[in-house]
Specification:
Length: 253
């Protein structure tokens, strides 16, 4: 399987003046395309060569020697989701079920805006800010570098890239101005509504993958070593004292 650069869902100049065509050229053609090319090089000839992108992300995240694979796979996924979170006709307060859920879980649309902007501006360094649904409740979260909500069993609905390459040509160091433009004029509520409609499937898939990855890690060498050390400890005097204490506690109960 060869991963391909996903087609943009809008024309390169369609988001101007909020995001310029020049920014799209650099962001899409250089950064996003670079992650795709690097990922293909990294997985070539490995067990990930014919593996779905989400599965690569979830499995490689727990492996210390596969962080290059994780970073590039996650950045491909994140950018795909970010482009879908943008619309030339976006922004404003969503209607319907999503609007009602925002009022229920944040108190008001303004409170959601404040929480989203706070999550984005307080993320130190490079990262992402998301609107997610977890256990049936909406929340805003930020993730560092390439990390994403799927790692934690959360279903993303909206994503905003707050790496500097996403906004610096248009806003310089004014990340908050970029987030304001995103919320006022670009956020794609239709995409968020589509994600909300499949959130049960997405959350289950992500959670299962995360649990499987954690189980694999638990069976790894370092964890097995600790388990063996704990078992060996029960064979010495300390272990004998522990067993006697457990027996005495059982007699008293």
């Amino acid at each position: 399987m060869t991963f391909e650069l996903k087609q943009l869902p809008f024309k390169r100049d369609a988001l101007a003046p909020h995001i310029s065509a020049r920014t799209i050229d650099y962001h899409y053609d250089k950064h996003h395309a670079g992650y795709v090319d690097t990922l293909n090089d990294l997985v070539s000839g490995t067990g990930y060569e014919n593996t779905a992108l989400e599965e690569i992300i979830l499995k490689s995240f727990t492996q210390e020697d596969e962080q290059d694979i994780f970073n590039n796979a996650a950045q491909v996924w994140n950018h795909d989701f970010f482009w879908d979170s943008l619309s030339p006709d976006g922004g404003g307060n969503p209607e319907g079920e999503l609007g009602r859920l925002i009022e229920r879980d944040f108190g008001s649309y303004k409170d959601f805006r404040d929480a989203f902007e706070e999550a984005g501006t307080s993320e130190f360094g490079s990262g992402w800010v998301w609107l997610v649904i977890e256990a049936g409740k909406l929340k805003t979260v930020s993730t560092t570098d390439a990390r994403l909500p799927l790692l934690y069993g959360q279903q993303p609905l909206i994503c905003c890239d707050v790496w500097e390459h996403a906004y610096y040509l248009d806003y310089q160091n004014e990340r908050n101005s970029f987030l304001t433009a995103f919320l006022d004029s670009l956020i794609n509520w239709e995409h968020a509504t589509e994600q909300l409609s499949i959130q049960g499937e997405g959350t289950t898939t992500a959670a299962r993958g995360y649990q499987d990855a954690q189980a694999d890690f638990a069976r790894s060498g370092p964890v097995d070593k600790k388990a063996r050390e704990a078992a060996d400890a029960l064979d010495d005097e300390e272990g004998e004292e522990l067993r006697k204490a457990e027996e005495n506690a059982a007699d008293r109960s």
